């Protein structure tokens, strides 16, 4: 047996998309899939959005890459626009989510270092967390499936149960730098932080001089019906990581911070060759042109309410299969009852009903449509999902 040319780290399925049209993906044989996976919460504006594609074509012809040796008029513009609409005073652009996480961890450590407290290097993170696949990011989760075989990992992380405020407070010691937490856990099972938990972490940070790092790589950029998920909680972080929806599929991420939290990140402390190049910055601007239009987030919230209501109506009809709905806005998950298995059910919906969703932890499958869906897509999704629930036989299905 020979090794495939593509390193076989993914269990790739038989859907082989070659084209996208709005909320639909088209496969090699012309078959159409309703795309409620959206590239794992990335294609927020759907496929082939005219403003995004035109921007990419124009900017590619004008200036694609220069390196960070030179001034960046477009980078300054995008950073300013993000600063104007968030808690942040400053932004570092990356090419991916995990690089934003790396920047966040480094920013937090540097903050305490320049404050004269280099011993405060540890981040309290949470069970089932997902922060990406770098050595730093897999060190920040307790999930064995991501860590096994990669030891020794980076020291400086403590793991506490998600939504367990008491446990999180009890874990604070003289070496704690802060908390790193997803406002709404994605990969781990679509669990939203409770208001007590998220606001409690904020309060603890204020009391103990710690930094609150929110990972909004999946739940940010409009996904939950607000620009950022923490807006639901009435708090702001000190540092926040963003990616996925920020580039609508163009590789882009960002680490946002307050002036205070970022005070250690001075000349020479961090960098990236590609990060924030003109093409990425133009795409980032184009995404915001659409998202910051009046009513965009309200519409996401409305669609999220409708989709959830439709699911709530459907669930009692398939009592043996569906357990509960999780998540916020258009970041929804449905927990399955055993013996149904999320990964199998996702495959069943995909192969037999042309509906794309994503499996997550805790036997949940994720419903992450483009944020630009309308009622017709919701109706189509519910029809396919109901049909899938009727035809799914967990014990006999392959
Ligand atoms: C996807 C994701 C990441 C990692 O992003 P990459 O772009 O794959 O590196 C980190 N945190 C969360 C919450 C994510 O959903």
UniProtKB/TrEMBL annotation:
Enzyme class: transferase
Compartment(s): Cytoplasm
PROSITE patterns: AA_TRANSFER_CLASS_3 (PS00600)
Ligand binding (pyridoxal 5'-phosphate): 130, 215-218, 273
Annotated positions of the N6-(pyridoxal phosphate)lysine modification: 244
Catalytic activity: N(2)-acetyl-L-ornithine + 2-oxoglutarate = N-acetyl-L-glutamate 5-semialdehyde + L-glutamate
Name by which UniProt lists this protein: Acetylornithine aminotransferase
GO molecular function: identical protein binding; N2-acetyl-L-ornithine:2-oxoglutarate 5-aminotransferase activity; pyridoxal phosphate binding
The record's free-text note on cofactor binding: Binds 1 pyridoxal phosphate per subunit.
Quaternary state and interactors: Homodimer.
Domain of life: Bacteria
EC code: 2.6.1.11
Annotated positions binding N(2)-acetyl-L-ornithine: 133, 272
GO CC, one annotated term: cytoplasm
Keyword annotations: Amino-acid biosynthesis, Aminotransferase, Arginine biosynthesis, Cytoplasm, Pyridoxal phosphate, Transferase
NCBIfam families on file: argD, PRK01278.1
Similarity remark: Belongs to the class-III pyridoxal-phosphate-dependent aminotransferase family. ArgD subfamily.
Pathway linked to the protein: Amino-acid biosynthesis; L-arginine biosynthesis; N(2)-acetyl-L-ornithine from L-glutamate: step 4/4
Annotated source species: Sphingomonas turrisvirgatae
SUPFAM superfamilies found in the cross-reference section: PLP-dependent transferases
Cross-referenced Pfam families: Aminotran_3
């Amino acid at each position: 047996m020979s090794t495939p040319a593509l390193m076989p780290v993914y269990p790739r399925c038989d859907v082989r998309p070659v084209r996208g049209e709005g909320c639909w993906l088209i496969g090699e044989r012309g078959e159409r899939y309703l795309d409620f996976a959206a590239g794992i919460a990335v294609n927020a504006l759907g496929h082939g959005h005219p403003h995004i594609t035109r921007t990419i074509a124009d900017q590619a012809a004008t200036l694609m890459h220069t390196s960070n040796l030179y001034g960046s008029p477009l980078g300054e513009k995008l950073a300013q626009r993000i600063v104007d609409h968030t808690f942040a005073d400053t932004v570092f652009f990356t090419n991916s989510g995990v690089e934003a996480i790396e920047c966040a961890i480094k920013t937090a450590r540097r903050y305490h270092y320049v404050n004269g407290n280099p011993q405060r290097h540890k981040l309290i993170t949470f069970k089932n967390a997902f922060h990406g696949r770098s050595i730093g990011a897999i060190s920040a989760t307790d999930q064995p499936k991501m860590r096994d075989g990669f030891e020794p990992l980076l020291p400086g992380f403590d793991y506490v149960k998600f939504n367990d405020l008491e446990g999180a407070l009890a874990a604070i010691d003289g070496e704690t730098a802060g908390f790193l937490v997803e406002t709404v856990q994605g990969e781990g099972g679509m669990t939203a932080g409770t208001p007590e938990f998220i606001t409690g972490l904020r309060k603890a940070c204020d009391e103990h001089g710690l930094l609150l790092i929110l990972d909004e790589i999946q739940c940010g950029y409009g996904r939950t019906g607000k620009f950022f998920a923490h807006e639901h909680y009435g708090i702001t972080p000190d540092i926040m990581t963003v990616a996925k929806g920020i580039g609508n599929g163009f590789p882009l991420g960002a680490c946002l911070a307050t002036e205070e939290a970022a005070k250690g990140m001075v000349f020479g402390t961090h960098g990236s060759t590609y990060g924030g190049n003109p093409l990425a910055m133009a795409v980032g601007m184009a995404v915001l042109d659409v998202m910051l239009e009046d009513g965009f987030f309200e519409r996401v919230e409305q669609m999220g309410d409708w989709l959830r209501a439709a699911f709530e109506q459907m669930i009692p009809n398939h009592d043996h299969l569906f357990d509960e709905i999780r998540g916020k806005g258009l970041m929804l998950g449905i927990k399955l009852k055993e013996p149904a298995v999320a990964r199998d059910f996702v495959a069943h919906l995909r192969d037999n009903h042309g509906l794309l969703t994503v499996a997550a932890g805790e036997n949940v499958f994720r419903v992450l449509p483009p944020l630009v869906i309308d009622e017709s897509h919701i109706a189509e999704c519910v029809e396919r999902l109901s049909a899938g629930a009727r035809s799914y036989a967990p014990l006999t299905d392959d």
